[in-house]
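FORM 12-B: Structure-to-Sequence Request
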């Protein structure tokens, strides 16, 4: 299950995301989306967790929580659209 994480600090990295979300269950991957030209964070990312209960717990616990001076937005990610 994939979780969208928005409004994150620009200095946050994938290890930070993994650390934050691992308190709520097993994290299988964490990815921060970066500008392809400058390599800087765009301020959002995605976290994959093993099961639905962990995803629900993480979303309910972390949405709106202040981390690194920013109130993060945490939601279940929408499925990718096929073109």
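FORM 12-B RESPONSE
SEQUENCE OUT:
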């Amino acid at each position: 299950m994939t979780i969208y994480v928005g409004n994150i600090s620009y200095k946050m990295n994938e290890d930070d995301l993994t650390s934050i979300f691992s308190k709520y269950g097993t994290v299988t991957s964490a990815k921060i989306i970066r500008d392809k030209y400058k390599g800087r964070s765009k301020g959002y990312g995605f976290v994959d967790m093993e099961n639905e209960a962990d995803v629900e717990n993480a979303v309910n616990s972390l949405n709106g929580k202040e981390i690194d001076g920013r109130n993060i937005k945490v939601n279940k990610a929408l499925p990718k659209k096929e073109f």
